Amino acid sequence: MINYRYLGNSGLKITELTYGNWLTHASQVANEQAAACVKAALDVGISSFDTADVYANTAAETVLGDILKGERRESLEIFTKVYWPTGPKGANDVGLSRKHIMESINGSLTRLQTDYVDLYQAHRYDYETPLEETMTAFADVVRQGKALYIGVSEWTADQIREGVKLADQLNIQLISSQPQYSMLWRVIEDEVVPASEESGVSQIVWSPVAQGVLTGKYKPGQAPPEGSRATDEKGGADMIKRFMNDDVLTRVQKLEPIAQELDLTMAQLAIAWVLQNPNVSAAIIGASRPEQVTENAKASGVEIPAELMTRIDEALGDIVERDPLKTVETNPQERPA
Known about the structure:
CATH topology: TIM Barrel
Number of domains: 1
Region (Disordered): 216-235
Oligomer: single chain
Family: Belongs to the shaker potassium channel beta subunit family.
Shape: globular
CATH architecture: Alpha-Beta Barrel
Strand content: 5-15%
Low-confidence stretches: none
Domain NADP-dependent oxidoreductase: 17-315
Keywords: NADP, Oxidoreductase
Number of strands: 10
GO molecular function, one term: oxidoreductase activity
């Protein structure tokens, strides 16, 4: 079964493997297959589920809500997010204005078929809305009982500090950060993690297997496997392309003997690796097949010895991205149209 960890400086426990439906539900995966994946997650003990209003332009929330509606709500932790354009994508269908937040939470609750979400997250930082307005709107969402806790995604260290400061003043709990984090993408380690630790915030990380690169299925000098994310022109290929070069793929192949020593698949090793960071509360895993969920669940509770952590660093060498500025560079400085 899956281990639980506290989320930030709160009493909320979540499963250290959290099921996410970005790029899958209502997009790459048929609804019946999506239901099978969620059932597999529940069967292995995953009770935390992450989605967002923007996924499949709101349809992913609907699919997840339909699948989970027969489950005991009190036994689940449901997370969603707000920021990116949704609906007809009008001038106010995007961002973290009070208007968009208040309308978006109502839409998300309807689609998810629940009275509240456990965690409501700012999907990016909105440079066009005063932070005070954003946090006040989040506080009202909490006071109305529509969300229990607040989180952020891909915010810088300074943005997290300011958000937590305002949350404290408003007497609500901002307890989580959802950044990209993997063996290959470690941009949060130098600034975001220390700021989070001092602020009572922990990480729910996405892409722990680097869009599938860390599974080892992409070989240097070879075309990507048919049907893999690297061949998905609907969005997957664009996300993975930063890792799709022979230098990275050659280094990744050096991880296979380390995984074998631990009797793990390379995907399990990658997920277990992010969970070694004490500031990480959960790794988000997605799936297009239920057996992927079952296999990845075996990463829960794995402890990687220090000497093998060192060997991982040596194997990957200087291909690891560590620059904290990447958090700013990969995020929009103005609301997307």
